Automatic annotation (TrEMBL):
The keyword Hydrolase applies. CDD domains: NTP-PPase_dUTPase. One of its GO terms (molecular function) is dUTP diphosphatase activity. It comes from the Bacteria. This is dUTP diphosphatase. Keywords: Hydrolase. It comes from Gilvimarinus japonicus. The lineage of its organism: Bacteria, Pseudomonadati, Pseudomonadota, Gammaproteobacteria, Cellvibrionales. SUPFAM superfamilies: all-alpha NTP pyrophosphatases. InterPro entries: dUTPase/dCTP_pyrophosphatase. Gene3D superfamilies: Type II deoxyuridine triphosphatase (1.10.4010.10).
Length: 204
């Protein structure tokens, strides 16, 4: 688990540095990004009592991955070392909940985030448990999304030349799902393998 955490922290630092080399000094409101994502998560889960809604757990899981990106950024910006953060994650991230209504756990997590602008690992673990997401699944999904973000940046995302719809008419996200499922997430070269596979599909 600690090895996977260290790998994700490095990927997050790399991604943030690609956007701005001095990202730690920018004062980015990571907590705000987190609570906005929580609102989007609630929309996918369903909260409107006046209409029938079926929870879209796949989309909920994707929102959790986005939240994890911002949470890692908060932890990195704290000034703690990668090893210290890995120890913190290992000791505080308990993937377990006694709450049967995910929405209540989301609200508790959001309230805590807004209260002190920190990343609450123990409350995030409850959200993971709410959609039956293991740490291995969090890692696989996170690395895939992080690599796709890098891939987009490297292929013209900023200047608008990137093609989100690829030659076969499917979005890059759809290709990503197939790529990460076909590769071994426990391999130390997993992220590089994902990038290479995406590149091979994109140029066709």
């Amino acid at each position: 688990m600690k090895q996977q955490t260290r790998a994700m922290l490095q990927l997050q630092d790399d991604m943030n540095s690609k956007v701005h080399s001095a990202w730690r000094e920018q004062g980015n409101a990571w907590y705000r990004a987190i609570w906005i994502e929580c609102g989007e998560l609630m929309d996918h889960y369903g909260w409107k009592w006046w209409k029938h809604q079926t929870p879209d757990t796949e989309q909920v899981a994707l929102e959790l991955i986005d939240i994890w990106h911002f949470g890692l950024s908060i932890l990195l910006q704290s000034g703690a070392s990668v090893d210290e953060i890995a120890d913190k994650v290992a000791s505080e991230l308990d993937i377990n909940t006694d709450q049967t209504d995910l929405r209540l756990d989301v609200e508790a997590f959001t309230a805590a985030t807004l209260n002190d602008q920190a990343f609450h690992l123990e409350l995030f673990g409850r959200l993971m448990a709410g959609v039956n997401m293991s740490y291995a699944e969090l890692y696989r999904r996170y690395v895939g999304k992080n690599v796709l973000n890098f891939f987009r940046q490297d292929h013209g995302y900023k200047d608008g030349s990137y093609r989100k719809i690829w030659a076969d008419g499917r979005e890059d996200n759809e290709h990503l799902v197939e790529v990460v499922e076909a590769l071994d997430a426990s391999d130390v070269g997993f992220s590089k393998a994902v990038y290479g596979a995406l590149e091979g599909r994109y140029v066709k």
